[in-house]
Amino acid sequence: MSQQLRQRSGATMTVSNEVDDLILRSDSGLAASSMMAASPSQSGKVMKLHVPAFYSLCPSFVQRFLLSWNFLSFLTPKWKERHLILIGSFLYKFVDENSSSPKGTPFSIETIESRVCSNTAEYVDERDFAVNHLPPGYQSVLIVSTLRRKHYYAVASREECTTWVQSLADARQEKIKRSMGHAGNMPYPKSWEYFDSRGINLMNSKERIKAKIEEAHVKEMEMTNFAEGGPMPRGYYG
Predict the structure, then answer these.
(1) What is the Cβ-side half-sphere exposure of residue 209, based on CA atoms within 13 angstroms?
(2) pLDDT tens digits along 81-103
(3) Which of 203, 212, 219, 225 is 20 to 30 Å apart from 110, CA to CA?
(4) Do residues 23 and 191 lie in contact, with contact meaning Cβ atoms separated by under 8 Å?
(5) d(Cα 77, Cα 84) in Å, to the nearest integer?
(6) Distance linking the first and last C-alpha atoms of the chain
(7) Distance CA 75, CA 54 (A)
(8) What digits encode the pLDDT tens for the residues 116-126?
(9) Separation of alpha carbons 100 and 163, rounded Å
(10) What is the layout of strands, in order, in the sheet containing 140-145?
(11) ∠ CA(30), CA(32), CA(38), 5° rounding?
């Protein structure tokens, strides 16, 4: 598979300079169509498992009760269509292949792990649901793990799931080689460099927004505590 990835990278370099220049000049930024035109390492339609916070906090017997009644379906996990694109140093998530921008923060391939979901292992509630409630037309589940959580994606077949896992592992290995200066003559398209730079900017922007939201939440909690006669907020008259 590593050889196939190198062959794909080599093939990418044969794309005409006109195509690369068109991507770099476009105003689409991180549009799915622009990435597809740049010959990504892997891409495809998947279904993402969305688990409501209320459901995840419920004990297992309450979860089974919620799943048994259709009128409570708004409280239970749902599969939502997504389009994944692995290109350069990031795995991007889109609502569909025509999306003009990614959904959420892209995954840096250096910080994630992936594997095929097994229904024979001991699993947590989310994995249990993912395995036993696959959407029609899907036969396997890809798990993408970050430092904070696990993400579950239903794919059409176990073979496709295995391909995703191998492609992500190969891309991560190639990224490490480039970072250490061991890539040698390994070609790297300038369109991929462009997407990497935009991906880094998007990731940093999302992190700054999240940090500001968390900071505002802490300040709100401190002021509420102070108003109720609790300890004085940090830094007050400090």
Answers:
(1) 8
(2) 999 999 999 999 999 999 999 99
(3) 212
(4) yes
(5) 20
(6) 59
(7) 7
(8) 987 644 444 56
(9) 26
(10) 107-108, 90-94, 78-87, 42-50, 150-155, 140-145, 113-116
(11) 85
